[in-house]
Every structure is written in C-alpha cells, then in structure tokens.
Amino acid sequence: MDSPGHCAQYCTYTFMEHDTHKILCIITLDKRMTGGKSAVLEKACFQKALQFLLHHNMKIVEIVTDAHVQIKALMRKDYPQIKHSFDIWHGSKNLGKKIIQAGQEKTKKPLLSWAREVVNHFWFCSATANTEEDFIGMWFGVIHHVVNEHEWILPYRVGARSSCLHGPLTEERDKGWLEPGSPAHVALRDIVRDKRLVKKIPYYLNCRSTAALENFQNLILKYTSKQHSYTPPVYHARNLIAALDHNSNCDRDISRKKDGSQRHQRFFSKKSGRWSTYGVKEKKKYPYSEKLMKACLENRLLDGIGMNQPSVLSVEDPRRVSSVLAPVPPPPTAELVAEKKSRFSESR
Questions:
Q1: Residue of 97, 129, 116 lying closest to 203 (CA atoms)
Q2: Which has the closest alpha carbon to 280: 308, 305, 261, 302?
Q3: Burial, 178: exposed, middle or buried (Cβ in 10 Å; 0-12, 13-18, 19+)?
Q4: What Cα–Cα distance (Å) separates residue 73 from each residue in 76, 79, 156, 345?
Q5: Which of 6, 8, 133, 212 would bridge 38 by S-S if both were Cys, CB 3.0 to 4.6 A apart?
Q6: What is the DSSP string of 220-251?
Q7: Where are the domains of the chain?
Q8: Which burial class, exposed, middle or buried, applies to 343 when counting CB atoms under 10 A from its CB (0-12, 13-18, 19+)?
Q9: How far apart are CA 191 and CA 189, in angstroms?
Q10: Ramachandran category for residue 260: left, alpha or beta (phi over 0 → left; psi -120 to 50 → alpha)
C-alpha cells in the first residue's frame, strides 16, 4: 500500500509477482469511496485487487503483506486456502526499533551494541527454520548467546535445539558480552519472548520480502508528485503509467564498463554510518510511449463530441459521492464572505 505523501485522500495498492517482480494489478481508491474513512482504505484496496485477480482465474498460493491487522483478519476469515506471510523486512525493522528504544535508558545502554546482531539473527531464523518449533528454538537461543552461554539444558520447544548453531568462537571480540540478569539482558529477553511477536512467527517462516515493491512505490512519485493535486482519473492513470514503466524496465542488467566489469556506485548510509555500493543498471527504455501517444492522437481525431462538452463521470468516480473531501457540504461563497469578520477592522 502507498499513499501520496502525508495526504490520506488516495490509496494505491499493488500486487507484484514474487519471482519476476512484474506488477499484476494496481488499484487506486479515494477515501470518499469508504465513507470518508481513510483508516479502512488499505483493506478496501487490498480486497478489491485480490478479487480482481481471482476473477481473472489467477491461481494465488501465497500473499505477502506487512503485519496489517485488518488484512490479517480478512485473510484468516475469507481466504484460509491462501498462505499469508508477513514481510520480514518490516518485522525486523520493528524489532530493531524496540531494541533501540529499550537501550535509551542508562542502565540498558549495552543493549544498543547488540541491536544489529539480534536483527540479523531474526533474519537467519526466518531463512533457516522450516517449522514454528525450529524458529522458536533458534530465536530464543539469542538470549543465551549474548551472555556467552551457547548451550542450555532444556530446549524451548519439543524437538528444537538446545545450543547455538555457530561453531567455536575463536576470534577476539571488540564488544563485550551482556551481564546475565542485568537490566539490558532482561530487556532483551522480554523483547525476544514477547507474546505478540511469538504469535507472528508462523507468518515469517517463508522469509519473504517486499523490497522490490518498495522501490516501485518510490517510482510512483515520479509520476504523482507531492507538489500537485490530481483528480481521481488522472491519479489512477499516472499510477498505471508508473506500472508500465516498472514492468518494462524491471529486468534490466547491471551496466558494464569498457573493460567488461560491472559498474557500481558507492553511497553513504546515514542510518548505519557506513559506506556501501549498488549496481548501476542500464538505461531505461520506454517501448510503450509511442503506442500511447498514437492512441491518444487517434482517439482525439476520431472523437466526434469535442473537448468543450462537459465530461460524464465514470461509475466508479468518487466525485459522484461528493464533490469535496470535507464531510460537510460547502455553503455558497457569498454566504461565507458575508459571515466572515476581521478582528482588525473593528473600531475602538
């Protein structure tokens, strides 16, 4: 789901195929279509897009979303035959935020040095575990690892391991271990064993990520700038053009230098404080643009109505519900001007 900036008027929901990264369906809704309630826009968009795919005989085995409560309940109730997974990136991001927040207290400062390792371990558990028992057995093991305890007496689940999966630790460590029972260790234990997180573990077993979809949502801003306001048909059309742009260029290879080596660009991440690189892809191509312009010109020439005639709103246009976004219809402008008074025009 994506919304244009801080505005809650529109909601764009995109379904992308996991392996090819091709966009299958893109739906846009205006909050006037949901009774002016922007909080239910995401669920309404999701359901409409899913029904569109099922109506066109699309066989859906698994759907990956973030941990949205309304969509989670909808999938469990109406679509139990479809596997529902959560995006591992969103889950690990929220986990990292909890660790950093807990480490802000003076007595829990040592926890901050372990934030990255704990998040990486969460990714490892998701990529390695095949069952919920395996995941919990490995995940809870981090409570022991951070205090330099790599074997424990009883496993946390039947059939799970009671030791760390790494080999002997022979390298010298720059960071120290946490003190068993210290405030930092207790805080980490509470985060790792949080009941809400444990209930979500079945949704992370397939280790799915929606990173490619996040990149496409950044591309949408190229066609729907935050600095402009769009009518519903124009906003939807611009989203469709963004989808055409993505589908036409998502298979690009990394460009190469004259010597045949791949071209990479370095960048500095303020969040991690480190330099990294990314592959520079080949230039984009727009094979659909000529067809679109030709179709627009032909429709204009063959249109016998003319542009000066009032346009008829489509059946799904939200302006049929209300011409304004405000919940109260506007009174005449002259009436508002007559009622308006200025504090500076009053005579003393």
A1: 129
A2: 261
A3: buried
A4: 5, 10, 28, 57
A5: 8
A6: HHHHS-TTS---HHHHHHHHHHHHHHHHHHTT
A7: 1-86+211-250+264-300+317-341, 88-166+174-204
A8: exposed
A9: 5
A10: left
Q: Phi, psi at residue 29, to the nearest 5°?
A: -135, 150
DSSP 8-state assignment for residue 190: H
Rounded CA gap, 71 and 75, in Å?
6
* Token pair of 250 as six digits: 């998502």
In this predicted structure, the answer to whether residue 200 has a pLDDT above a threshold of 80 is yes
Alpha carbons 29 and 12: distance in angstroms, whole number? 7
At residue 109, the pLDDT reads: 92
Tokens coding 280: 């520079």
* CA distances for 226 relative to 16, 151, 218, 245, angstroms: 24, 54, 12, 19
pLDDT, position 202: 94
Which residue is listed with tokens 């409409």? Answer: 48
> What Cα–Cα distance (Å) separates residue 221 from each residue in 2, 5, 147, 246, 249?
10, 9, 46, 13, 17
3-state secondary structure of 287: coil
The tokens of 255 are what? 């460009």
Spell out the alpha helix ranges (H) of the chain: 41-55, 69-78, 88-102, 115-128, 132-139, 142-145, 183-192, 195-200, 211-223, 232-249, 289-302, 333-339
CA 147 to CA 253: how far, in whole Å?
Answer: 45
Residue at token pair 């989670």:
72
Gap between the Cα atoms of 271 and 257, Å rounded:
30
Note the pTM of the prediction, 2 decimals. 0.82
Task: Specify the amino acid at residue 176.
Answer: G
Residues making up the chain, counted from first to last: 348
Digit-coded pLDDT (tens) for 263-322: 999 988 776 677 889 899 999 999 999 999 999 999 888 887 777 777 788 888 888 888
Q: What is the pLDDT of residues 28-56, one digit of tens each?
A: 998 888 888 888 889 999 999 999 999 99
